Amino acid sequence: MGTTAPNPRRITMTPAARRVLAAAARLFYERGIHAVGVDLISAEAGVTKKTLYDRFGSKEQIVVEYLADRDERWRAFLAERLDAAGPAPGERVLAVFDASRAWAQEFSPRGCSMVNAHAEIGDPAHPAHPIITGQKRWMLALFTDLASEIAPETADSTARTLMLLHEGALVAHGLGVFPDAIALAREQARRLLA
């Protein structure tokens, strides 16, 4: 799976910081990270720029918190669906696609926030970069674990194929290339595992 980057610094959330993060998350997702400045974030959050900088220190730290929060919420959302799917690894694989479809419909009409952020943050030195790549490595590890339970001898290959189906579906969903891309990817995953 490669080396894992160190965990980025996180801040303690105060009520003002939570308002900033909520405003930034909405704006970053809707408009893009580079298109949104701290003036707009502070205005939308109802705080001064001084408060914003006192809480976060920089726009980069707001981006870190935004992506880390999305990742934590996604992992919790997925964990609930995996628990509900039961112990059968094939059903758990399909539950990942079902969870992604539900998440996309509710929280991600413009596609995966990690993929979108990576389009803007390609520099590995950016403090949010480890969150983006870490989330995708985590997904690959999850698919690998599940594939190992199904067919240990082909687990790596199967996991990579599942990952490509999953990530491709997220991108196609975000671009609106064709309807219900995630459901199509789920069906292809089911055929792969049959």
Uncertain spans: 1-5
SSE class: mainly alpha
Query: In which range does the helix fraction lie?
Result: over 70%
Largest sheet: none
Roughly how many Å is the radius of gyration?
Answer: 18 Å
**Strand tally:** 0
**Count of helical regions:** 9
What percentage of amino acids are in beta strands?
under 5%
* End-to-end C-alpha gap: 26 Å
The averaged pLDDT comes out at 94
Q: Which outline best applies?
A: elongated
Key words describing this protein structure:
single chain; mainly alpha; disordered N terminus
Write a structural description:
The two termini are 26 Å apart. The chain is built from nine helices and no strands. It is elongated, with a radius of gyration of 18 Å. Helices cover 74% and strands 0% of the residues.
Give the SSE layout.
Layout: H1 15-31, H2 38-45, H3 49-56, H4 59-85, H5 89-107, H6 113-120, H7 129-150, H8 155-175, H9 181-193
Helix pairs in contact: 1-2, 1-4, 4-5, 4-7, 5-7, 5-9, 6-7, 7-8, 8-9
In a few lines, what is going on in this structure?
Helices cover 74% and strands 0% of the residues. With 194 residues, the chain is mainly α. Helix 1 packs across helix 2 (38-45), helix 4 (59-85) runs parallel beside helix 7 (129-150) and helix 5 (89-107) packs antiparallel against helix 7.
